C-alpha cells in the first residue's frame, strides 16, 4: 500500500514538474499577476521620468500598459538601457523590452521580436550654426551616441573618418554636445527630437542631414515562445486597428506636443487580427 502511495506521489511530482517546464510566458505572467516591461527612463518621449509625478511615462510605457490590460494583469516597469535590455530579457528579469530597440537579424540570435510597432531612422543632432549639415561634415570630428545601440555601428559605416564616443545613455551624449566635447549626437530621429524638445533652449539645436539608416522598432520578447509572441503581435494589431495606437502616438508625437512628428508608415496587419 505504502509503495503504491509513494509511486502516486512521485508520478504527481513528475506531472507538476513537466507542467512547469512547459508553461509558457503567458501562464507565468498571469500566475504572477503582472507584466514586467523593461523601458528606458531617460529617452523622451518613449520612456522617461515625469518631473511632476516622478513616474515613468512615455509611448513605450503606454504600449506596455495596453498589452498588460489585454493579459488582464498589472503593469510593472523596470528601467533598462541600450546595453542592459537584452541581457535582462534573456535572464528573465523582464517579460518584454519596450526600449526603442531596432529589430536586427543579429539580435534574433538571442531574442525574438514583435512586428514593427514604430518606424524611425537615424540622423544627427548638432548645434545650430555649427556648419555641420550632413554626415559628410563629421570627418575628423567626435560623435556621441549610446553604448549598445545600432547607432554606434551605423555612424562608423556612414562616416569612417569620425571618432565615435559611446555614453551610458543619450542624455549624457547630449550633455557632451552642449559642453563642446563632441560635434554631434547620433541616434534615431525621434530620440533626437526628444533631446532637442526637452532642452531649455531648443532653438539652439537642429537635426541635420538625411537618414543614415532605417530603424524599425520591435518589442524584444523571450526566444522561442511563439504563443507569447503571437499574443503580443495580435495585441499590437488590435491596438492599431482600434485607433488606440494613434491616440497614444498623438499623445506623445502629435501637433500639440513639443515633439511633433507626422507619421506616414502603417503597421503590418495580418488578416483576422480582430477575431
From TrEMBL:
Transmembrane domains' residue ranges: none
Annotated GO CC locations: extracellular region; outer membrane-bounded periplasmic space
Highest taxon, organism lineage: Bacteria
Domain Solute-binding protein family 3/N-terminal intervals: 34-256
One record GO biological process: amino acid transport
Keyword Transport attributed: yes
Cross-referenced Gene3D superfamilies: Periplasmic binding protein-like II
Stretch forming the signal peptide: 1-23
Annotated InterPro entries: Bact_solute-bind_prot3 (IPR051455), Solute-binding_3/MltF_N (IPR001638)
Pfam families documented for this protein: SBP_bac_3
Protein keywords: Signal, Transport
CDD domains named among the record's database cross-references: PBP2_BsGlnH
PANTHER family: ABC TRANSPORTER GLUTAMINE-BINDING PROTEIN GLNH (PTHR30085:SF6), AMINO ACID ABC TRANSPORTER PERMEASE (PTHR30085)
Family: Belongs to the bacterial solute-binding protein 3 family.
Annotated protein name in UniProt: Polar amino acid transport system substrate-binding protein
Species: Desulfobaculum xiamenense
Amino acid at each position: 500500500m505504502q509503495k503504491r502511495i509513494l509511486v502516486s506521489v512521485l508520478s504527481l511530482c513528475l506531472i507538476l514538474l513537466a507542467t512547469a517546464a512547459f508553461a509558457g510566458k503567458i501562464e507565468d505572467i498571469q500566475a504572477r499577476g503582472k507584466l514586467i516591461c523593461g523601458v528606458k527612463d531617460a529617452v523622451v518621449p518613449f520612456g522617461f521620468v515625469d518631473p511632476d509625478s516622478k513616474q515613468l511615462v512615455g509611448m513605450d510605457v503606454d504600449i506596455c500598459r495596453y498589452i498588460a490590460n489585454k493579459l488582464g494583469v498589472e503593469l510593472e516597469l523596470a528601467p533598462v538601457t541600450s546595453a542592459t535590455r537584452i541581457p535582462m530579457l534573456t535572464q528573465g528579469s523582464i517579460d518584454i523590452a519596450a526600449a526603442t530597440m531596432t529589430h536586427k537579424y543579429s539580435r534574433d540570435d538571442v531574442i525574438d521580436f514583435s512586428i514593427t510597432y514604430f518606424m524611425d531612422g537615424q540622423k544627427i543632432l548638432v548645434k545650430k550654426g555649427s556648419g555641420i549639415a550632413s554626415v559628410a561634415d563629421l570627418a575628423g570630428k567626435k560623435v556621441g551616441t549610446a553604448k549598445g545601440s545600432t547607432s554606434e555601428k551605423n555612424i562608423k559605416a556612414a562616416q569612417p573618418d569620425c571618432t565615435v564616443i559611446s555614453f551610458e545613455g543619450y542624455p549624457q551624449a547630449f550633455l557632451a554636445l552642449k559642453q563642446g566635447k563632441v560635434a554631434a549626437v547620433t541616434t534615431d530621429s525621434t530620440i533626437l527630437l526628444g533631446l532637442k524638445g526637452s532642452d531649455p533652449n531648443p532653438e539652439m539645436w537642429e537635426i541635420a542631414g538625411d537618414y543614415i539608416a532605417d530603424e524599425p522598432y520591435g518589442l524584444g520578447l523571450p526566444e522561442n515562445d511563439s504563443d507569447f509572441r503571437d499574443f503580443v503581435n495580435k495585441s499590437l494589431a488590435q491596438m492599431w486597428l482600434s485607433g488606440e495606437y494613434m491616440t497614444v502616438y498623438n499623445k506623445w508625437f502629435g501637433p500639440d506636443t513639443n515633439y511633433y512628428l507626422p507619421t506616414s508608415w502603417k503597421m503590418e496587419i495580418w488578416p483576422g487580427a480582430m477575431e
